[in-house]
Design goal:
Blueprint lengths: L2 H12 L4 H15 L17 H18 L5 H20 L4 H18 L1 H14 L8 H20 L2 H12 L3 H16 L5 H15 L14 H7 L1 H10 L5 H16 L7 H16 L2 H7 L17 H6 L1 H14 L14 H21 L1 H7 L3 H12 L4 H14 L13 H4 L3 H12 L1 H12 L4 H12 L2 H8 L10 H20 L3 H4 L6 H13 L1 H7 L6 H11 L6 H15 L6 H20 L7 H16 L3 H25 L1 H4 L3 H19 L15 H17 L2 H4 L2 H18 L7 H15 L2 H14 L6 H21 L1 H5 L9 H28 L1 H7 L2 H11 L5 H15 L8 H33 L9 H9 L4 H12 L2 H5 L7 H12 L6 H15 L14
Length: 1030
């Protein structure tokens, strides 16, 4: 069978349903991809060939072009280029698979980028000529042209610095005006024609890509600044502004990105007046959408807490947070209330939400480019500020972030220099800072005023605003109330007033007798949420600053009551956890702790029964953590009893599911996830018992031992059910319980070792769950040197590697190699790749712990040969976490440094390494060298130094390793892998420096690898290597 026919059959098998045939096909295609015959895959781009075969073939050739194009003879390159262009031209007139057409465009662009500027200019000209088809309504020709122009720009951006400059200035810049003119014509036509959204979005993406290169004309003036674009390419500039009012989300998003690039460009010689006029035109285009935004917005503010979901940063704290409060108070005074006090969008709201993000993003970019313009020069400055506040009323996080950036840029212009409307009105946006300053001046009078507003509030909005006013000065209040405060001597009486005010406030808030409770305002979800955040922010006051009479237990009970409200549950759970941590020393009565545990379970069970109110798992974990931390500080007998009370309901619910729910045995995903959630809560309770002081307690009295004993029937039952053995969430949660027990008990967990190791070995042998290996890793960490655990841990590593053998043997190409797959299999492969990478991470982390803590057990298991073989493959990983574990394992094996190892252990490790190196030493050295220039992430380049240096300096292996290393680094194939970034001289110099390791410290050796790896990626010049000769 010829290579083309064989490739065709293999690709078809790859898409088949037979798993074995798919694996075999993938192995064959992986080898085929590196051969010269792979170029012939172009012949599969025929109309009678299945689309998935064509897609795979063109992707394979793209990969070949990027890695091996320079190895072809010029005639062969021209032949392949001509064939690809012919196939693309056929698609101009014939309707065909759009995805394959896009990949063909990418293929031609990759070839042009590899050939250089002249080839790029030819392809750009060809794309421009294709757009003449748009005048005849040929949308296919237009899309092909746009894809070509977009792919050319993207390929140029991916070139190294040296080649990129030449390609842009000689291949793209001379035709930029023609390209911009073409894009303007296409955009104008598409915006005026219905049903052209996809083409419009593509044209905008193409515009963004070309604007991003800051191209200049023959006089050195920028073609990409707003002023230049408006003057030289008015059609494109007008079309860009018109795209803001588009009715398609994809077009709106693409327009936002294009404007961001346009407004970030340099002025490049154009006068400021031209730029100002262009910015004024952009502002007018934004303002044209004001009525549309206001028409879709029911004018009513969001709850304050919903508007505060922006990241904390100085500009936010100083400019926006209390501007939201100001907007809230203004709206409350208008008495325009919607049913729930939320912002609602009418039909079509998703598009308008996208438009609000576009308007806010472009407005922020205008302010960043010219703060003076948006503050004083532009006639649209004031309407633009009002439009930004309109966008802010949406309460959407991304919109708020852009408004933050807008106000931050505006704040760089002196207040007196702004337009009048942007002085006093906008100054209220600094209300946060004003409030903090006000508290610093009037101190307790501030709290009294806010308390008055709270007690006289007649609406939930006013009550929430008053609570927020108290909350936002919490840091200043706590600082002034601290005994270490610098102002203590001068403010003693004020501290007493502050303590009295806060005590009164929290007693009324938490006791159930205050006005907020009596009027029902506290039962409004957003008020309760803000009250929960307030309590959380004043946790330090409850801890010790408030004195002995603080209503701590009442506050905790209020937070547990808030769990019944979905809006209040997340802040309440977080505040409950914080209060338990801060105030644990004040809750030492076992009866009080058990009472809280009972209330918590009642709140969680009540919430779970309500059809619309369900506490999220993370919130439950926050509550359980807080209770576990309180329990951990009790005396051992009381702690054990309270701990049993804490985990009892979770164990009972899970046990009932196991015994009565047929969905569990049948493998029901929902029921399995519910069971996993119960186990996670048990694990959370066990994990945070770690913070107790049980080291001096009698042996066997640790509360976690009784917790684990109570959990054991459930855990054993889970392991015995086949469907649960295969359930990823259940096994992950089970292993979380085991790891938590090990973390809390440490050496005291030795009696539990069989109960921890045996189930994990069984589960991993059956289904290769990576979390099982994480449990074994913890066991080796704590008991690797314990003689009583030797047989158990030796067998565990043997089973771990034996069960991993099929994974690494049959599907290592999925884990360690880049495999081109069709679009419909991308999600499936992504999931499979993620699981295999997790497997590799866990296995090599386990192996690393054996190398550090129990090398004799690793040798006795007979697994080192397999681990070495997989380590050679693993060095070529591109994913950081598994690669880090592989390198760490090889480093500790090649250069054992642990103080826990005897000389005998170290020598035994060396002997095992010599044996492995005699079979695959060359492959390991080559893999390390390849990782250095091709696959290793930049931030891990230095970590390659440890295993490589150890191999180069080992007396028994040094000569062979140096021979392997020099052969690889100085080969032409190695140089070609850098895409022209390396040359023979730099490779020879690096090789010589690397093999003189004695002259370089480990720190300088790792720096050498970092610099050479960066050089191979097109960063810097070979001069950087000369410094290492000094």
């Amino acid at each position: 069978m010829g290579s083309i026919a064989a490739a065709h059959s293999a690709i078809q098998a790859l898409y088949g349903s037979d798993s074995a045939q798919r694996q075999a096909a993938n192995v064959w295609l992986t080898e085929y991809a590196s051969s010269e015959q792979a170029w012939e895959c172009m012949q599969l781009l025929q109309g009678d060939v299945a689309p998935e075969v064509q897609f795979f073939s063109v992707n394979l050739v793209i990969s070949k072009v990027r890695h091996a194009w320079s190895q072809l003879q010029p005639d062969a390159r021209q032949q392949i280029q001509g064939f690809a262009r012919h196939k693309l031209e056929d698609r101009v007139s014939n309707a065909s698979n759009r995805l394959i057409t896009q990949r063909l465009c990418l293929l031609l662009a990759a070839m042009a980028a590899a050939d250089g500027a002249e080839a790029g200019a030819v392809l750009v000209n060809h794309a421009v000529q294709l757009t003449t088809g748009s005048t005849n309504g040929n949308q296919a020709a237009t899309e092909i042209a746009l894809n070509l122009l977009l792919n050319i720009a993207e390929e140029a951006a991916a070139l190294d610095t040296r080649r990129q400059g030449s390609f842009i200035h000689k291949g793209m810049q001379p035709q930029a005006q023609t390209v911009f003119g073409t894009l303007g014509r296409v955009l104008q036509t598409c915006l005026a024609t219905s049903g052209q959204s996809s083409t419009t979005a593509l044209a905008l993406k193409c515009t963004q890509a070309w604007l991003g290169f800051s191209l200049a004309d023959s006089h050195g003036q920028s073609m990409c600044s707003p002023g230049a674009l408006q003057k030289q390419q008015s059609q494109l500039f007008t079309a860009l502004n018109a795209s803001i009012s588009a009715e398609d989300s994809a077009v709106i998003d693409a327009a936002a990105e294009a404007f961001e690039v346009l407004l970030e460009s340099e002025e490049g010689g154009f006068d400021e007046e031209a730029d100002r006029q262009a910015m004024s035109a952009i502002a007018q285009a934004l303002l044209a959408n004001k009525n549309a935004l206001q028409g879709h917005l029911l004018v009513q503010p969001c709850p304050l807490s919903a508007l505060l979901r922006c990241p904390s940063r100085p500009a936010y704290k100083k400019a926006v947070r209390l501007e939201v409060l100001r907007q809230l108070l203004k709206s409350v005074n208008r008495n325009t209330q919607s049913p729930k006090g939320n912002v609602y969008w009418t039909a079509g709201g998703e598009v308008e939400s996208d438009r609000a993000r576009l308007v806010a993003k472009v407005g922020a970019a205008l302010a960043d480019r010219s703060p003076e313009g948006v503050a004083q020069d532009l006639p649209e400055a004031v309407p633009l500020a009002e439009l930004m506040m309109t966008c802010l009323s949406l309460g959407e996080r991304r919109v708020a972030e852009f408004v933050i950036d807008y106000l931050d840029s505006l704040s760089t212009v002196a207040l007196a220099e702004r337009q009048p409307q942007l002085q006093q009105p906008l100054y209220s946006s600094l209300l946060q800072e004003v409030l903090e300053i006000s508290f610093g001046v009037v101190r307790s009078h501030y709290l009294a005023l806010m308390a008055h507003h709270l007690h006289t509030a007649t609406s939930w909005q006013a009550a929430e605003a008053a609570l927020f006013g108290i909350r936002c000065v919490s840091s200043s209040v706590l600082e002034s109330s601290s005994p270490d405060s610098e102002d203590q001597a001068a403010a003693g009486s004020d501290q007493q007033n502050t303590r009295a005010l806060l005590s009164s406030l929290f007693r009324q808030l938490c006791s159930g007798q205050g006005r907020l409770t009596q009027t029902g305002l506290l039962q409004q979800p957003w008020v309760m949420a803000t009250a929960a955040r307030l309590i959380g922010d004043y946790a330090l006051w409850f801890s010790h600053l408030g004195g002995p009479d603080v209503p701590l237990e009442a506050a905790l009970q209020l937070l547990l009551e808030a769990l019944r409200m979905p809006q209040a549950a997340p802040p309440a759970a977080k505040a409950f956890r914080g209060l338990c941590i801060r105030c644990a020393a004040r809750i030492t009565n076992p009866a009080d702790v058990e009472g809280l545990i009972g209330l918590a379970h009642t709140a969680l069970q009540t919430s779970a029964k309500h059809s619309e109110v369900i506490v999220q798992q993370v919130d439950k974990q926050n509550v359980v953590e807080g209770l576990a931390r309180l329990t951990a500080l009790l005396p051992p007998p009381a702690a054990a009893k309270a701990a049993q009370h804490l985990i009892g309901p979770f164990l009972q619910a899970a046990q009932v599911d196991l015994q009565t729910d047929p969905g569990i045995a049948a493998g029901s995903t929902d029921r399995a996830e519910q069971l996993a959630a119960s186990l996670q809560l048990v694990a959370c309770a066990i994990r945070f018992m770690e913070f107790g002081s049980f080291a001096s307690a009698p042996a066997g009295s640790h509360p976690v031992l009784s917790m684990f004993e109570a959990s054991q029937p459930l855990l054993t039952g889970i392991v015995q059910i086949p469907s649960l053995q295969a359930s990823v969430p259940v096994v992950s949660a089970l292993c979380e319980v085991y790891c938590s027990a090990l973390t809390s008990l440490r050496e005291a967990a030795q009696p539990l070792l069989p109960a921890l190791v045996t189930p994990c070995v069984t589960l991993f042998q059956a289904h290769q769950h990576p979390p099982c290996l994480d449990v074994l890793t913890s066991c080796v960490l704590y008991f690797g040197a314990a003689p009583a655990a030797a047989n158990l841990l030796t067998h565990a590593l043997y089973v771990a590697c034996s069960a991993s053998e099929p994974v690494f043997q049959l599907e290592h190409h999925l884990l360690f190699l880049s495999c081109i797959v069709p679009a419909q299999q991308e999600e499936e492969q992504a999931h499979q790749m993620a699981s295999r990478q997790e497997h590799a991470t866990s296995l090599f982390r386990l192996a690393d712990n054996y190398a550090l803590m129990a090398p004799a057990l690793a040798q006795a298991s007979g697994a080192l040969q397999s681990l070495f073989r997989w380590g050679v493959q693993g060095v070529q990983l591109r994913e950081a976490e598994p690669l880090r574990c592989v390198i760490s394992f090889l480093s500790h094996w090649a250069a054992p440094t642990s103080g826990l190892l005897t000389n005998t252990d170290k020598q035994a490790l060396k002997e095992a390494l010599y044996s492995c190196m005699s079979h695959q030493g060359q492959e390991l050295v080559q893999a390390l060298a390849l990782a250095l220039v091709q696959t290793c992430p930049r931030h891990l380049l230095r970590s390659l130094a440890s295993p490589l240096r150890a191999l180069l300096e080992d007396d028994a292996m040094s000569d062979a390793v140096k021979s392997f290393f020099s052969q690889m680094v100085c080969s032409q194939q190695y140089i070609d892998m850098s895409g022209g970034a390396l040359d023979p001289d730099s490779c020879q110099l690096f090789c010589r420096l690397a093999m003189q390791t004695g002259a370089l410290s480990l720190h300088r050796f790792s720096a050498l690898l970092q610099d050479f790896g960066s050089l191979a990626r097109g960063e810097g010049t070979s001069d950087v290597l000369l410094a290492y000769e000094l």
